[in-house]
Amino acid sequence: MEIVLTIFGKNFRLLKKLWLLFFILSLTFIGCSDKNDKFSEKNISDSLSTYLTLANEDTISYEKRLDYTDKAYKILTDQNNDSLNRKNLFKVANRYYNIKNFEKYKNVTFEIIQKSIAEHDTLDIAKSYSYIADYYANTEKKDSAYYYYKKAEKIYIKLNDKTKLGSIYVNIASVQSYESDFLGSELSAIKSLDALRDTEDYEKMFDAYIILGFITNEVKNYEKALEYNTKAFDIATKYNLTESNQTAISLNNIGHIYQDQNNDRLALQKFEEALKSKNITDNPDLHAILIDNLAYSKFKLNDYSELPDLFYKSLKIRDSLNFTVGIIYNKIHLSEFYIVNHDTLKAKKLAKEALDLSKSTKNNKGLLSSLKQLVIVDPSNASIYSKKYITLNDSLQQAERKSKDKFARISFETDEYIIQNDKLTEQNRKIIFTGIIVVLFGTLIFVIKSQQSKNKEFLLKQEQQKANEEIYNLMLFQQQKIDEGRADEKVRIAQELHDGILGRLFGTRLNLDSLNKRQDDDAMASRNNFISELKSIEQDIREISHDLSREKNEVNNNFVGIFNNLIEQQESISEAKVSCSISRLILWDKIENNIKINLYRILQESLQNINKYAKAENIKIEITKIENHLLMAISDDGIGFQVAKKSKGIGIKNIISRTEACNGTIDIKSKIDKGTSLFIKIPINQ
Question: Which end of the chain, C or N, has fewer beta carbons within 10 A?
Fold first, then answer.
C-alpha cells in the first residue's frame, strides 16, 4: 500500500502553503503561551490534526515530517483505546508509510492489531491485518504478507465486503506474482475482478488487470497480456483515472509487451504516447521507466539519434530517487548499447556496476541480468560468470518453489481453495501430459524429416557422381574421336614423308652424284641449288618432327587433351592471352574421374567469369602436384573486385561446391585493378 497526495492547480498550492504556515504559527503560539506544556482537550485535538497535516506535506523535509508524525503518535499513546484513537493511529501509520519509515509503521500497526482485538472490533482487525501485510509485502517476507492478507480475507468474506475483498485479492495476487507463483496470482486477480464486479472501485479493477497482464506476459502469452492491459487502459480512460497516471502505466505495459515480441516500432509509439500524458513528470519513477523503455526500443531499432542521452536522462532521475532497481537495469541497457558500439571498457564497467549494486541491495533478478550481460561483455571471465549465473538461478528456483509451498500451506485453511487447487493441479497434469506427448510427437516428426532429408541428400550426391562419370566418359569419347583424327593425320604425314620428302631426297642425291664427276662453273651452281634444296627438306622434316613431338605429348593423356581443347576454345572466343602449365608428374589415369570432371568444370566456370567480368589481357593456369595434393591456380590481370563485399554469385558458389565435393580447399584473392587469383588444393591418392 502506498498513499500519494496530489494537489492540482498553482493557486490551490499557494493557498495550502499559507494555510500550513498559519498552522505552524498557531502551534508556536500555543507552545509559547502555555508555560506548563499542558493542553486542553481542544488544544490536544488541534495539535494532533496539525501534526498529521504537516506530516503529510511533501514540500517539508523528511526530518520534519518524521518529527511531526512522532509527536502525533506520542499524543495518541496516552489516549483511551476507542474507535477514534484507532482511526488516528491508522493515520499515523499512513504517515510513516508515506515517508518510508517502515519499522515505525510496523510497530504502530501491531499496536492497532492488539487494540482492535482487545475491543473485538472486526473491521479494525481486518484493516490492521491488511496494513501489516502491506509492511511485509515491502520486505523479503512475502509469506508473512500472504498470511495476513488471508486472515483479512476471511474476515471480509464473513462481512461480505466486496470492495475490501477485491482490494485484498489484488494485494495477494501482487505478492504471489513477485514470488513467481503465476498460477496462484492469476487466480487471485480473477477473484478480485469477480468481487469488484458490482462495485465502483475502478482503481482496483485497473490494478487487477495490470497484474493479469504482467503474469501472462511473464509466461509469454502475449495475446492475453495485450488483452488485459488494453482493458486496464480502457478503464483508466473511461473513468479518468489520472491521479497515479494509470493511462501512462497501461501504455507503458503494452509497449513492454511489444518490446518482448521484438515489435519495437509499436512499442516506441506506446512509450511516446505515454510520455505525452498530463503531469507525467509528477510521477518521476514512471517517467524514468518510460524514458528508459523508449531508449531501449530505439536501441533495438538501431536508431541512435538520441542515444545514449535518453538512457542517461532516465539514470539521472533514478539516481535522484535512489531507485536502485531502475538504476541496475539502466546500467545494463547502457552496457548493451556500448558493447554494440564497440566500447568494451564502458560496457564492462557499467555491467560490473550493475552487478555490485545488485549485490549490495540483494536484488537477485538484477544479479541474474548483470551476470548474463557480463558473460557477453567480458569473454575472458565468461565461464566464471556463467557458473555464478547457473548457481544463482538454481537457488532462486528452489526459493520460488519453497515460497509456493508456503503459500499452499497457508491456503490449506480453506476448503474452497483446496478444491480449486486440486482442479488446477489436475489441469496442470493434463497440460504437462499433453505437452510431453506433443514434444515426443514433434521430436519423432523431426527425426523422420531429418532422416528423409539426409537420404535425399545422399541420393542426390550419388546421382551427381553418376552424372559426373557419364559426362567424363562422354568427354573421353569426344577426345578419342579427336585422337583418331590425329592418328589419321599421322598416317597422312607418314605418307607425305615417304612419297614427298624421301622422293625429293632420292632425286637430289642422284643429281649430286652425277655432278661430282664435273668441276665446271655450271656444276658448281647446280650443286649449290641442290644444297639449298637439302636445307629446305631439312626444315620441312624439322617442322614435321616438332608437330609430331608436340602431338605425342598432348595425347599422352586424354584428360590433358580435354584441358587443352578448353583452352583452345578460350583463345578463340577471347582476346586474352592464355598460358597453361600442367605438371608431367601427375598420373592422371590414377586420379578419380570425379576429381577430374570437377577440376574441368572449375576451370570452365573460372574462364567464363573472366570473360564476363574481368576484362583481362592475360590469363595464367597452373596445375601442379605437391606430395598428396593436386594444386590448381588460375590468375588474371583484370579489374578485380572486393572479395569481402562481393556477394557470392552462382558461379563462385558452384566453384566452392565442386571444391568441397572433392574435400578440397579454395582461396580467392582479388584487388581492384590488380586482378584476381583462385587457388584450389585437392587431396589425391597416387
Answer: C
